[in-house]
Amino acid sequence: MNEWLKSAAGTRAATAPAAERVRYMAPSGETFDVATPRWRAPDGAPLALTPGPGLSPDRIDSRERSLWRYAAALRVDPDSRVSLGEGWTPLLDGDWHGGAVRFKLEYFAPTGSFKDRGTAVMISYLRSVGVRGILEDSSGNAGASLAAYCAAAGLSCRVLAPATAPAAKVAPIAALGADLCLVEGSRQDVADQALRESESIFYASHNWQPFFLEGTRTLAFELWEQCGFGVPSAIVVPLGYGSNVLGLWLGFKELLDCGAIASLPRIFAVQAANCSAFARPWAEGTDRWEPFEARTTVADGIASIRPVRMPQVLGALRQSGGSLVTVSEAEIAVALRGLLARGLFVEPTAATAAAGCTALRDQGQLAADSAPVVVLTGTGLKAADRVGEILSEIAKCDRERGVRGARCCARPA
Ligand SMILES: Cc1ncc(COP(=O)(O)O)c(C=O)c1O
Q1: CA count, 13 A, side-chain hemisphere, 103
Q2: How many CB atoms are closer than 10 A to CB 356?
Q3: How many angstroms separate the CA atoms of 196 and 184, rounded?
Q4: How far apart are CA 119 and CA 121, in angstroms?
Q5: Do residues 245 and 239 lie in contact, with contact meaning Cβ atoms separated by under 8 Å?
Q6: Does the CA dihedral 226-231-233-238 come out positive or negative?
Q7: Higher pLDDT residue, 150 or 17?
Q8: In what order do the strands lie in the sheet containing 91-96?
Q9: Which of 55, 85, 129, 238 is the most buried (most CB within 10 A)?
């Protein structure tokens, strides 16, 4: 087990007090007081938090219809809580590609994406330690989430986004009162600009700040509770930087370590084949980032070039017994159409999870009788134009197939 994973999920008793002295922890093992906000270690490495306290059913506040029902396991000051009602999303029984599934509707969130879990906890923490203004870079969903929670918390918020980001994704950022700055160039250019600005304003990047993962790990607690305090056999989730993968891993590992569950679910991550930073390291069994050809993808939320916590994400997939799967643009389009046909209005990035489920079933990695959880991470409302274009493209493709008998689109859902 790599050091970060080991230290971030060390064994703890379920009875430990939640507000126990949580500390930032660097990969070197050095720890830092959380009273001083940080977004990375002095040597530039990403930080984790010291192990969480675990959870038991009797410590859940079932009156709370939000992720704050797990407040006993969240290391933030309850008096600084900033909430818009995030978490406690539906788990819906369904069918997919010849078998049962459970769709986890993470797009039922205040700003329409799973990011609200991480943002609510991160902003609560930052406010509690006196941060009054933050900087973020985002291609869309995280920026809208940060803008909303900063508005609720009374914090100023500056968001850098790529000039090419879909208008429907950046409009909410400005509408929610953030100082939106569109940056020319690639997604990496935006991140580089944020790094330069981080000298003068606190950089609350959701990809770096470990309190964001403190929030996304509530997805694991919630699935555990919604499965009758059991463990789903498998979870399929889109992967960009990995805050869902790591949140799931941290949460379930914590439950395992405190004796609340007896095994981990297999975690399957899905990337677009057009832009997969993880594909090569996964296939080669390494942890290192390597340059790769990044082409455009409809799954803009996971088009990540240089993920920050690559070894940790790969370690979590390997240790859970899951895997990484990549899907083509055609497979994403077909999965999106299949979800829409079931009344599930999600964005293309979220549809990659369903496309991944199709591929995993075809490859025999998911047994037909297993009912994996398919995590639907973002609403279609912020991508309605793009969704319409994709449907038109598939319809055109279907027409051509009818005329020429050509095989154009991939596996039906
Ligand atoms: C809708 C949606 N799903 C999934 C992801 C991927 O999340 P992560 O980068 O934490 O892996 C994103 C990231 O922006 C997203 O917007």
Answers
A1: 25
A2: 30
A3: 15
A4: 5
A5: yes
A6: positive
A7: 150
A8: 91-96, 99-105, 373-376, 234-238, 266-272, 323-327
A9: 238
Confidence label for 18 from pLDDT (cuts 50, 70 and 90): very low
User: Tens of pLDDT along 187-234?
Assistant: 778 888 999 999 889 999 999 999 999 999 999 999 999 999 999 999
Q: List strand residue ranges (DSSP E) for 337-395, in order.
A: 373-376
Chain centre to alpha carbon of residue 5: 17
Atom 12, ligand 1: residue with shortest CA distance: 301
Which two structure tokens, joined as six digits, stand for 204? 């609350």
- Between CA 162 and CA 157 the distance in angstroms is 17
224 neighbors 380 (Cβ within 8 angstroms): no
Nearest in space to 299 (alpha carbons), one of 268, 277, 322: 277
Q: Is 378 in the pocket of ligand 1 (CB under 6 A)?
A: yes
Average pLDDT, the chain: 92
How far apart, in Å, are the Cα atoms of 222 and each of 81, 91, 358, 398? 19, 10, 25, 40
Nearest CA to ligand 1 atom 13: 301
Could you tell me the CA-to-CA distances from 271 to 191, 295, 298, 329, 411 in Å, in that order? 20, 12, 11, 11, 17
Q: Which amino acid is at 290?
A: E
Report CA(377)–ligand 1 centroid distance (Å): 7
The 3-state DSSP composition of the chain as helix, strand, coil percent (nearest 5) reads 40, 15, 40
Q: What is the pLDDT of residue 1?
A: 44
The model's pLDDT over 389-411, given as tens digits with 9 standing for 90+, comes to 999 999 988 888 775 544 444 55
pTM of the model: 0.93
Q: CB within 8 A of 405, min separation 6: which ones?
A: none
**Per-residue pLDDT tens digits for 52-110:** 999 999 999 999 999 999 999 999 988 899 999 999 999 999 999 999 999 999 999 99
Residue nearest to atom 16 of ligand 1 (CA): 301
